[in-house]
Design brief:
- The complex is a heterodimer of chains A (364) and B (280).
- With 364 residues, chain A is mainly alpha-helical.
- Chain A has a single domain, classed as ABC transporter involved in vitamin B12 uptake, BtuC.
- Chain A is 70% helix and 2% strand.
- In chain A, helix 2 packs antiparallel against helix 11, helix 5 runs antiparallel to helix 11 and helix 9 crosses helix 11.
- Chain A is globular, with a radius of gyration of 22 Å.
- Chain B is globular, with a radius of gyration of 20 Å.
- With 280 residues, chain B is an alpha/beta fold.
- In chain B, helix 4 crosses helix 6 and helix 4 runs parallel beside helix 7.
- Helix content of chain B is 36%, strand content 24%.
- In chain B, the strands form two sheets. In chain B, strands 7-8-9-3-10-11 form a six-stranded mixed sheet, sandwiched between helices.
- Classes of the chains: A mainly alpha (364), B alpha/beta (280).
- The interface between A and B is medium-sized, with 25 and 38 residues.
Chain lengths: 364, 280
């Protein structure tokens, strides 16, 4: 396919996306669910790509994402809550005088949030990154829980407001949230396609060979870990910005598993896969499968299964089906390309007919 | 005689109670092709791994370009268990990691091919260029190293043409036939701009025709890149044809060294390979 055709396709897609955002923003009340899902989906996509950078591209099985998100979210929230409303937020123990009057503008606070998470990652990286596979996962998981417990501890009341959580975080509109998400994902994609990204992939493929090619393992692993945590921190900050109130229970291990699920479904080692799956998973979890939670009556008979929580059963079944049919995730290690998309569309009739042919063959 | 590029001094490698390499000394001069041979399990690959920094030796030192790159002496638990010679001769611990040694100009290939399997042929070679690039992570991410990146890509392409893999550059490395994978591994090693190339059984699993091709190939790249080559090999045709000098290891001990002719007529080498008649 020609370069210009691709350009045009991309421009059309971008324009359509912006039009969709404008439409949703102006009809916020009617399409509230779509607005929510889109924002949350994109925020999770940032974190999923950051996790993919570690797990899918560098081959480091780390499960610390929720902890770094918590650091980012709190770093962002503490310094953006308007000074005048801090009294009502820290109503139990009051705010620590050292941070009482410091307020950052939004973007500064976002970068600060990323840096806090990155700094913590840099410190724990040196001991933790000497571990491999499962052991690394356990160590990072442990640190992530430590962070959460630390934030929720009563000793931190004057800074993090302990287990009461933080509220009154200034709101951002949909353009801001999604725009920032796209910027973060683009930066990570550029990193992955750079010389450093290739070095990360080399480490994933074969550590011994990578080292023999002059790649300093610890330095590059540390780099991947710090950058991944930086963006996980920003992802957490974006989540705080979007939810407007946070508390430490948001950042339990379950959040890491949610993100791991997104990464695996999307494909370990595919950026577009992670984005796509973040949107699909969020949408089906929060929106498309909602009706399974409502009581359903067909012809006067109340179907007993349709009740609160049934949605998650269906969701889990869907996940299993996806994993069965796409063993390496939706995208595998491939990235989105227009050729791929058009090729897929063209192959649909063939695929359907081959499906029938197989069945005929089986019948014979 | 030209200058010594690699000097291995009294290397002993002991794993637990097993002495895999015992008191191995060796010199490689600039521009030579030197081979290390020996029956299976003689400790050849272990010696190789010591030189490239994969294992720290139990005792001994390695010099590259007159700089000490590796040195060690029995410490801790090993102090009592040490069964090799020259105990107490070395008192310094110098341990360069494999990447640092590669950076100094020692490139290697592996006995069981270790390519970056799911990456393309082109990427495999391009990765080896990463070490010499000056870009930091920011300039690389935001594409401020365009010139360097372009130069690296051009050099990679040139290298692939030299080794005859240019038309396969977008293939996934693991999909290449075995012989080509060997060539790719050598190309990747060359991309690190080495002075000394270490080949670990480059002809393993090759048929005679492929081996002949490889012989010519090694000679050609040696001239073209001004390399010094040190290799482990089992194919005697290959070894005898291209080596300037040969070292022989048996049960971890060096038993002979010399030119191919000398080695072919050395009684101890023949015994090591063929065994000694029982009645003797």
């Amino acid at each position: 396919m020609k370069k210009t055709t691709k350009m045009i396709c991309t421009l059309i897609a971008a324009a359509a996306f912006i039009a969709l955002l404008v439409f949703l923003e102006s009809n916020k009340n009617k399409y509230g669910m779509a607005v929510t899902v889109l924002q949350k989906g994109f925020i999770l996509a940032v974190v999923a790509v950051s996790m993919n950078l570690l797990n899918g591209f560098t081959g480091l099985f780390s499960l610390g994402q929720a902890g770094f998100m918590a650091l980012g979210a709190y770093a962002y929230a503490i310094f953006t809550i308007p000074v005048e409303s801090r009294g009502s937020v820290y109503y139990i123990s009051g705010i620590h005088p050292a941070i009482e009057n410091i307020e950052f503008p939004m973007v500064v606070a976002l970068i600060f949030a990323g840096l806090v998470a990155a700094a913590f990652a840099a410190v724990i990286g040196f001991p933790v990154l000497r571990l491999k596979s499962d052991y690394l996962a356990i160590a990072t998981l442990g640190f992530s829980e430590i962070i959460r417990a630390f934030i929720a501890s009563p000793q931190m009341d004057q800074i993090t407001n302990g287990s009461y959580g933080l509220k009154s975080i200034p709101a951002a509109n949909i353009y801001m949230v999604i725009g920032l998400c796209i910027v973060c994902i683009t930066i990570m994609a550029m990193l992955i396609n750079s010389s450093y990204g290739r070095a990360f992939k080399a480490i994933r493929e074969d550590e011994i060979a990578a080292e023999a090619m002059g790649i300093n393992l610890l330095k590059h692993k540390e780099l991947a870990f710090v950058i991944s945590s930086f963006f996980a921190g920003i992802g957490g900050a974006l989540l705080a910005m979007f939810m407007r109130s946070i508390d430490s229970s948001t950042f339990k291990i379950a959040l890491t598993y949610d993100i791991l699920l997104i990464v695996v479904i999307g494909g370990m080692g595919s950026i577009t896969g992670s984005v796509l799956s973040a949107l699909l998973v969020t949408a089906s979890k929060e929106w498309w499968l909602r009706f399974f939670d409502e009581p359903l009556t067909i012809a006067g008979v109340n179907i007993p299964l349709f009740r609160n929580g049934f949605r998650m059963v269906i969701f889990s079944i869907l996940l299993m089906v996806v994993v069965l049919f796409y063993r390496r995730g939706i995208m595998g290690t491939n990235e989105f390309s227009w050729e791929g998309l058009f090729g897929l569309i063209k192959s649909i009739p063939k695929r359907i007919s081959s499906l029938f042919r197989k069945k005929e063959g089986a019948a014979k | 005689m030209s200058k010594t590029i690699l000097k291995v001094e009294d290397i002993t490698m002991q794993f637990g109670g097993v002495v895999a390499v015992n008191n191995f000394c060796m010199e490689v001069h600039e521009g030579e092709i030197v081979a290390l041979i020996g029956p299976n399990g003689a400790g050849k690959t272990t010696a190789f791994n010591v030189i490239t920094g994969v294992y720290a030796p139990t005792n001994g030192a390695v010099y590259f370009d007159e700089n000490m790159i590796i040195s060690n002496f029995p410490q801790g638990k090993m102090k009592k268990m040490y069964a090799g010679e020259n105990h107490g001769k070395y008192t310094k611990k110098v341990e360069k990691t494999p990447d640092q040694i590669t950076k100094l100009g020692v490139a290697r290939t592996f006995q069981n091919i270790r390519l970056f399997k799911s990456l393309t042929v082109f990427e495999n070679v391009l990765i080896a260029k990463h070490m010499r690039s000056k870009a930091n992570v920011f300039s690389a991410t935001f594409r401020m190293n365009g010139k360097e990146e372009k130069k690296n890509r051009e050099e990679t392409m040139k290298l692939l043409e030299i080794v005859g893999l240019a038309d396969l550059k977008d293939e996934i490395a693991s999909s290449l036939p075995y012989g080509k994978q060997r060539h790719l591994e050598i190309a990747r090693a060359l991309a690190t701009e080495p002075k000394l190339l270490l080949l670990d059984e480059p002809a393993a699993g090759m048929n005679p025709q492929e081996t002949d091709e490889l012989t010519a190939f090694i000679k050609r790249i040696k001239e073209q890149f001004g390399l010094t080559v040190f290799m482990i090999e089992h194919h005697m045709d290959l070894v005898m044809e291209i080596s300037d000098r040969i070292y022989v290891l048996d049960f971890g001990k060096p038993i002979a060294s010399g030119t191919p002719d000398e080695i072919q007529n050395n009684k101890r080498v023949i015994e090591a390979y063929l065994g000694v008649p029982e009645d003797e």
